[in-house]
Structures are given as structure tokens and as C-alpha cells.
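RECORD TYPE: inverse folding
INPUT: C-alpha cells
STRUCTURE:
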């Protein structure tokens, strides 16, 4: 994928202004095999933070109802979008109909043995698999990756290398983190997949991003 934000104007804007973490941060030259991830939430957080799509700043999305915490650092992959191609891939793999992408960047969990104290940071991550999650009629894939060069997890090449208990904890978190008093939710994880499907999901989300936000590239294109 061509980086639409690596031109001189884009670089100059990045020097003067803080880049928007979704649109202004480069996904990385080796994507989808190695990606930049913007981290919103870490394991010690008792509330869920989420990037504000307009400003790019973190905002409190909701307090966690239960004491369970995510056993990873969690955020999204910049310059990705869950749109038509992600919805079609979900339908292809599940046999469901009327599934759309959820309209957000692709979520990513990054496994590391280090204690990361806070979010609002960028990390380099290598995808090893993911969860095919459906929320209502929306595809909401969760990519699972390892922190590049991590001492404990860095040698994992596929989700099958990951201890079962970590996978179960991640599943439990994502199936319960939207629980709020008086609210119904309809989330399910239909499949756990390996590295090849994870890379395909990311590639499709990169294409969805180009289709959705092509005008941003045109605005920043150096004439």
C-alpha cells in the first residue's frame, strides 16, 4: 500500500502539529507483517479509553464494570478501516449475511512481558492471529500481535504458539467489556484464526481505508 502521508507537506505538518493517531500516523513500511499500533488501553486501566475520532485525543469511553483486565496492551492500527471488504470477508468465513464493517480502525492487542504504564503511545507489533468477532451485524475483528523483539513473546509466529490461558483471557475480556447495567449487547467470537488470516484482515482493512478516506490523501498530495 502506498503511504499517502509521506509526502513533504505531510511531514511538515507533522513537525508543527501532533499527528492524528488514526490518519496521520504511518502504518509502517512492512505492513501487514509488521505494523505500527496506537495503544489506547493498558492492563492497569480501570476505565476504557478510546481515541476521539475528530480530535485524535483519548477520551474516557466507559468504566469497566468488572475487575477483569485485558492481558495485553490494546488499541488500533492506523490507516485501517473496517468497511465493505472486512464485512465481505467476515461473511465469506462465517456464512452469515448482512454483515458490515463496524466503521472503526482495526483493533489490535499486543502481547508483551513488559509493564507498559500508560496508553497514548505507538509501538511496533507483529501480528500472529486474531478473533473474528461480530457485534450485532458488524464485523469487529481483534488482531493479536506480539511486541517487536519482546523477550518472552517475540518468538511467537502464530496464535498456536500462544498459551491457551492467554487466549481464553482475551476472549473473556472482549465478550464482557461492553457489559453495562441496563444495556443489552450481542457480541460473539465465531472463530480464532492464525497469522495468515490476520494478515489478510489487515490487508483488506488497508484497502477499505484507501476507499473510505481517499480524499485525505488527495488533500495532502504534493502537487
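DESIGNED SEQUENCE:
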Amino acid at each position: 500500500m502506498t503511504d499517502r502521508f509521506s509526502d513533504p507537506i505531510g511531514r511538515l505538518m507533522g513537525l508543527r502539529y501532533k499527528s492524528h493517531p488514526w490518519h496521520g500516523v504511518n502504518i509502517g513500511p512492512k505492513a501487514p507483517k509488521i505494523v505500527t499500533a496506537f495503544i489506547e488501553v493498558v492492563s492497569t486501566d480501570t476505565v476504557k479509553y478510546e481515541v476521539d475520532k475528530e480530535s485524535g485525543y483519548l477520551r474516557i469511553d466507559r468504566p469497566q464494570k468488572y475487575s477483569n483486565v485485558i492481558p495485553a496492551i490494546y488499541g488500533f492500527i492506523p490507516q485501517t478501516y473496517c468497511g465493505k471488504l472486512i464485512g465481505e470477508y467476515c461473511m465469506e468465513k462465517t456464512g452469515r449475511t448482512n454483515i458490515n464493517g463496524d466503521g472503526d480502525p482495526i483493533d489490535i492487542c499486543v502481547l508483551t512481558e513488559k509493564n507498559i504504564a500508560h496508553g497514548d503511545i505507538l509501538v511496533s507489533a507483529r501480528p500472529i492471529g486474531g478473533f473474528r468477532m461480530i457485534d450485532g451485524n458488524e464485523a469487529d475483528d481483534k488482531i493479536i500481535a506480539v511486541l517487536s523483539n519482546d523477550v518472552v513473546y517475540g518468538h511467537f509466529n502464530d496464535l498456536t504458539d500462544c498459551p491457551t490461558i492467554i487466549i481464553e483471557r482475551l476472549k473473556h475480556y472482549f465478550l464482557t467489556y461492553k457489559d453495562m447495567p441496563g444495556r443489552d449487547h450481542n457480541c460473539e467470537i465465531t472463530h480464532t484464526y492464525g497469522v495468515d488470516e490476520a494478515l489478510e484482515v489487515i490487508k483488506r482493512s488497508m484497502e477499505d481505508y484507501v476507499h473510505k478516506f481517499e480524499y485525505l490523501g488527495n488533500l495532502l498530495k504534493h502537487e
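NOTES: The chain has a mean pLDDT of 87.
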